[in-house]
Design brief:
Largest sheet: 5 strands, mixed
Structural class: alpha/beta
Order of helices and strands: HHHEEEEEHEEEHEHEEEHHHHEHHHEHH
CATH topology of the largest domain: Nucleotidyltransferase, domain 5
Distance between the termini: 21 Å
Length: 397
């Protein structure tokens, strides 16, 4: 009899593999029997899916000791012994390259950093050199490379569109260029999304909100938004450019070329410029934080002003998106923990009360590198087939 299903056997196999990968990723090592029961597919189907994933080096078997009689059941986990992914984080001052198993644990000694080069070709060459070094080490199979970028990313074209603070990548298909020389799949994502993903992974074992915001405060100001557990990327991936909303009418020129952006009054580079003017000498962020801890009044005054401007942007996010949790990340907030209280109090003055009261503001604990590696792992899981909802739609037609 002719197969009337719009979903063909090969595609069904891929869907089953994705279900198995997601289950192991979300719940940890499982036996084949546990997978069959949890997913709701037959035991032979699980065996077939697992065999394919073992052959692809996405899963590996481990034996878990048990107290009762009989042979210990073999469990499947995300591969880490013989398989790895590589994560790369870019900024205007420093770039970091590291490797990790599919469990997301960064391998000890496998983290390399270097000052950001002055041009794109040098950046590409340095990332390539360090990644090849990590790929040769321990004789592991490298399945994917993830690169986080401080700026606007076109997720459809996988292109760095605009990075105000790292202009050497503007318009570059850095993922495609690295893939061509390294021979492994590469993807790029915005740094704020990497931070958001890292934070979600840290809190996934406990109660988490499905609607969260992540403020990335550093040389620039980024925003990561997750709505119903999905990244809010917009039409092309440009959503979340909080640092470039206009705040000061006819204000200073931003690195993006516009005037009066939030970054011109509330970023680290803006704070450096204002403190340098106040102290009548060049001052960098590290010294600013030392002076703030010592109680330097001009420095504290500028930091307080920075927090007030930043609260305007945060209040906009609270009013528009109504997040349940707002994670605040940045060196200033890490070194001066009281700044979070000041930011929250200022935000209270600008935000609608119901939305403000429904939001929990907390210090972020994750890191961009962890999130970049997690993005590569998620890509391997999710690329087995496109979104499963697409096939449910096909089946109904």
């Amino acid at each position: 009899m002719k197969n009337l299903s719009p979903i063909q056997p090969k595609l069904l196999s891929r869907i089953n593999e994705r279900l198995v990968m997601r289950m192991v990723r979300d719940r940890g090592p499982l036996t084949r029997a546990e997978m069959s029961k949890s997913i709701g597919i037959t035991f032979p189907t699980v065996i077939k899916a697992v065999s394919s994933l073992l052959e692809s080096k996405l899963l590996e078997e481990v034996e878990v000791s048990q107290s009762g009689p009989g042979r210990p059941a073999k469990r499947l986990r995300l591969a880490s012994e013989d398989t790895q992914v590589v994560g790369v984080t870019l900024s205007d001052t420093e770039c970091i390259v590291a490797s990790a198993g599919l469990d997301g644990v960064i391998v000890a000694g496998n983290t390399k950093s270097f000052p950001t080069p002055a041009n794109y070709d040098s950046l590409l060459a340095k990332i390539t050199s360090l990644t090849k070094e990590l790929m040769r080490r321990d004789d592991k199979t490298t399945l994917c490379l993830g690169v986080s970028i401080p700026g606007i990313v076109d997720y459809q074209e996988q292109r760095a569109v605009l990075s105000a603070n790292l202009p050497i990548v503007n318009g570059k298909y850095i993922g495609r260029d690295l893939q061509a020389v390294l021979g492994v799949e590469c993807l790029i994502l915005r740094d704020a999304h990497a931070f958001s993903l890292s934070e979600r992974l840290l809190h996934e074992k406990g109660e988490t909100d499905s609607n969260v915001a992540m403020l990335d405060h550093s040389e620039g100001i980024g925003l990561g938004m997750m709505v119903n557990n999905q990244f809010l990327t917009g039409n092309k991936g440009f959503a979340g450019e909080l640092g470039h909303i206009p705040i000061v009418s006819d204000g200073d020129v931003c690195n993006c070329g516009k005037k009066g952006c939030l970054e011109t009054v509330a970023s680290e580079w803006a704070l450096e410029a204002k403190v340098s003017t106040a102290l009548e000498r060049p001052v960098k962020i590290d010294e600013i934080l030392v002076l703030a801890k010592s109680g330097n009044e001009p420095v504290l005054r500028e930091i307080n002003q920075m927090c007030d401007y930043l609260a305007l942007g945060v209040a906009c996010v609270v009013n528009i998106f109504n997040p349940g949790t707002f994670y605040i990340y940045g060196q200033c907030f890490r070194e001066l923990p009281h700044l979070l209280d000041l930011l929250v109090e200022n935000t209270r003055q600008y935000a609608l009360e119901p939305s403000f009261l429904a939001c929990n503001f907390v210090h972020a604990q994750g890191g961009e590198l962890d999130g970049t590696i997690a993005s590569a792992i998620n890509y391997l899981t999710d690329s087995l087939v496109p979104d499963l909802d697409d096939y449910l739609t096909i089946a109904k037609e």
